[in-house]
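Entry for zinc ion complex. Fields follow.
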Amino acid sequence: MIVGVHPIAGFDKLLHYKVPALLQHAVALGSLVRIQVGRRFSLGIVGAIGAPSDFPVDRLKNLTEAVYDFPALPADLLALAKWMAVYYAAPLDGIIETMLPGAVRRATALKQEKLLSMGEKLSALELTALERRAPQQAKLYTFMVQQFRPVAKALVLKRLGVEAASAAPLVKRGAIKEESQRVNRVAYDDDFASGELVAAMPHLLNTEQQAAFDALKVEIDKQEFGVTLLHGVTGSGKTEVYLRSIHEALADGGGVVFLVPEVALTPQTVARVRSRLEAIAPGHACVVWHSHLSEGERVDGWHELATGRARIVVGARSAIFAPVQNLRLIVVDEEHEPAYKQDETPRYHGRDVAVMRAKLNGAHCILGSATPSLETYANAKAGRYGHLRMTQRIDDRQLPFIDVVDMRVEIMRSRGMTTLSQKLVHAMQDRFEKREQTILFLNRRGYSSSMLCRGCGHVEECPHCSISMTYHRTDELLRCHMCGHERGAPARCPSCGSPEIRWRGTGTQRVEEAVQRVLPRARIERMDADTMSKKNRFRQVLAEFRAGKIDVLVGTQMIGKGLDIPNVTLVGMVDADISMHMPDFRATERTFQLLVQVAGRAGRGDRAGVVIVQSFTPQADAIQFSRHADFEGFAEGELQLRKDFRYPPYRHLIHHSFRGPNPEKLVFFAEQWARKVEAELGERLEVRGPSPSPIEKVKDHYRFQVWYFTNGVSRVIRDLNTLRRGFAWPDDVLQVLDVDPVSLG
Ligand code: ADP
Ligand code: ZN
Ligand code: ZN
């Protein structure tokens, strides 16, 4: 038997090996094997059985070892890896590494436990002799005679105070039997999720939920590939619909992948999924997949799935690669979340990979969101995906009222910079007196280099690309970092003449101080990437907030997702503008999503919620449509704009970045390259750039970028990548391709 192996060794090549007779039962497509490459040993995945007919078989080496006796990469994952290698222009071995957790590749031992049980009885005479000759052995034997079932060896020895060496002679003469058993460290009872258990009783579905589930049931039962967008407003009860669908797939013998965006907030979802599944489908172990697992837990969880003992995995992005057998359903919750995109090689998008994996398995994929990405929405509108709507909140709770404060007026009134508007301050004071809670959101740190007029809200945009221009201090220029268009930076606002045209972002700390000043007796807590680097701190603050021990929670949007706290009746959005004026054609979409999601955090209990949004551009579409959570209205205008500028979803976008210590050299090669691409592939793609990246220099490395727009993405990527491999790049010019980037930073 000959096999082709993809080594995990830093190069892409199929190498051939002979399989020794001893290993043949354990080797199949997708097996993880150890091989000799040159003088080194390396791991690899069996990617082909057999060899070309004229192959010089005699000189082949033998495989060294099969790490597991079942395929570590089942057929669907192997096919998925190959697809990703082409689509994301990424090396196959890096993708295989991403798919197989390190602990699995290292074959971190599955934990074994030794058990002792009774063997053949000794005669009274033999026992007396033993008591005299080896009292410890006798003690162990006498104890074992009284046992009816196997007992853990370590425990027995410890309890009896007997040395380990005493067991061996007894085992040897057959008086005691010893066997090994696997112990499971799989995170079934994950302490990560404890303390957040929600009632397990299934809800009676309301009419909209029932209609959605009925439609999904039909799709799941078809057992063929399909995608459905489950488009339901915040609080419409999507999770309940996912759970029923999951149960449907499980009941039918299928496997399920359930993806959630943010690792930090999976405990809530995980606890809910687990307790609900245990109630409706007892015995279905649900494997949890997140970055805080220990090596042992990860290997065991992986092993449970790979061997089909567990059939459902819940986790963040990388859980899409869990070796779930007989995959029948994939659920992607909050499918619009940029967190699904991995920002290092392989730069894959978890949602898009989910759709592809469903396709390879003839499975159904549910994409759920209150604010679908325009890519997904366009697919649904074009009929490529099913489209289910849920328009009402559970129990007909009101969507919160969104009140927009015009910060231009606020600044005139306070005669200078102000962080919190009067309206927001009064509302917070009111909640504090009523013992209700407030959340204040800030945008993630924006570019201090985008320009926004604080007199009139004007933002300078590129006429060709419709994105904000970026201010470059060094040469006093405004530059479009997509097409390179530039103009002198104005000293005064071109629209109203105000000199106040520099944007400064506000940090969480400044906001915290401002709140402290107006609410001196309130308990305030801050949650951002800096203060929350420890996982326990994050849980602790959430638990305290839930328990009502914190009055005002200040944080970046990381605290927004999935928070479901009934006593929160006020949500403030401190600086809606920053995300809106990021130099990114998705800036409007992001802001709309952010506002709707954030607003969804208010009024989850019996009392209606109020949301106050502060902005210098209150008339902007993203803000106006979010006031009534009017997704269709928003999408219509935004899709038209995307169409006019031929942005995604109307074309695919590929980002190519160049980095190096020498800016002249970078520009030279980037330009040479861009010209070559234009000459060779110009008919099938549009090239924009090269232009400096918005952050031009990082750790003494300069950065430039080129953008490609295309319709025929798969074939173009293949050709682009081939061209790139053949181009003579100097050693000090690093370049990275990113297909379907989600952020233009
Ligand atoms: P979404 O994910 O759509 O924002 P959730 O799934 O979080 O909404 O549901 C919102 C709340 O409504 C949750 O507390 C959930 O337990 C509750 N819920 C969901 N379905 C029902 C139902 N049919 N009856 C009563 N409560 C429900
Ligand atoms: Zn102005
Ligand atoms: Zn431009």
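NOTE: Residues 453, 455-456, 458, 493, 495-496, 498 surround zinc ion (ligand 2) (CB under 6 Å).
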